[in-house]
Amino acid sequence: xxxxxxxADFPLPEEWAEVxxxxxxxxxxxxxxxxxxxxxxxxxxxxLIDDERNRHLIWGRFGPGLTLQAxxxxxGITRERVRQVVNKVSRTFVRNPQLKLVLDSVFMGLGRDGxxxxxxxxxxxxxxxxxxxxxxWTFVVNLWEEVQKRKxxxxxxxxxxxxxVPEALPDERRxxxxxxxxxxxxxxAQLARWLDVPPGALAAMACGWPRVVRVCSGLYGLxxxxxxxxxxAVAEQLAEAGFAxxxxxxxxxxxxxxxxxxxxxxxxxxxxxxxRPDVRELRYFEHAGRDGCWRLGALGDGHANNLEAIRAVLxxxxxPLHWRExxxxxxxxxxxxxVMALLSRETExxxxxxxxxxxxxxxxxxxxxxxxxFMQELFVQGGQDWLPADVxxxxxxxxxxxxxxxLSLGRFSLQFRYWxxxxxxxxxxxxxxxxxxxxxRWFAQRDRRAMPPQAVLLAGLRQAFIAxxxxxxxxxxxxxxxxxxxxxxxxxxxxxxAMN
Length: 500
Hints:
This protein is of the alpha+beta class.
């Protein structure tokens, strides 16, 4: 993995290869018809015109596609005269049964499937030896439109290859608007149904829409998608294949499979784009909880970032929670340090001590919590460890709760019962055993804690002496000196043995 400043740059996962191959732009379909003898048909049409000037006029009107005014200016006649000549020639074509039969056979055959790609390469004319195959094709199509008085569509899609549709092509703007609003690839059958066209003809028809892109898997996308729209469309294909989360540098490279222009875009541009909440399209995504990783908002918890997710957990709980409990309730993977950093840094959270946090404005409500809510808060504050019942009752009395009512819940005993939050499991242990457990927990984190109560120290030191744990006794004695605290008198002989 290389680094670009503060941004990581990951290579494309090998597992994505099949998905990305499916969204690469597909090659145009092969022409469905070839008309190498098109020049003979043009010559047959021109042979029916006796007047040489009219023959040139008809060619100029239907070949290069001159307007009535342009054709009149070229031959020194009015546009009305041009129109009259065109109408007369059209009647001549219609009245010639043999030519009409040939034209019918050509265009009816082409239009049978709704649309077709026509290859006219190699066509040449005796009357117009300088004419290109494209001009010959244009002449025949325009002439047939004039004879039939019906609009057809002919669009160049390659060298001497034309898309022919025997009617008006569906408006590209409708398709562009639909694909831009969805920002998703569409299946051929779905798009054909929406356009009310035969599915089999859609691949050829799409050649007439420059902004619509057909990919290798048969789906259709938009070549003018914005950067967030391309990322959403590609991410949806990855999610369908089981790759729901991705790093911004990975999705950046993946988008280049569909739009090669994005291959030169630095990964940091994708990171910056995903981090701009003011862009409407970025609502498609949400942070996945890990550095630089994102996912589709529709597949996540609906929160754009970790801060919103943590805020939602506390709002739903309506009570203070330990940061571990907050992390457990999140519907996303968030690192320990990230959770603590957000809770400690953001002013909308307040710390109640011992790793417990609440939303701003909840502090005054703590003393009015029901007993059940207080107990949950209490044991979460305890770090999910065992607590003596007398400690619980003391804290309950400080909150103004009735001690008898707490005891009536049946979860505590003043002498022996301890309860662990999250398991609903009551265990009987002696006070001595509970104190030994508390000492062990304190000793494991001794660098960050004050000295524990005398009873806890005595129980822990006794166990250390019995187990001949000289280092435990020695370090405890040294810590007591640093804190200016006194060890229990009963432990003096044990610590003396450890120090010597």
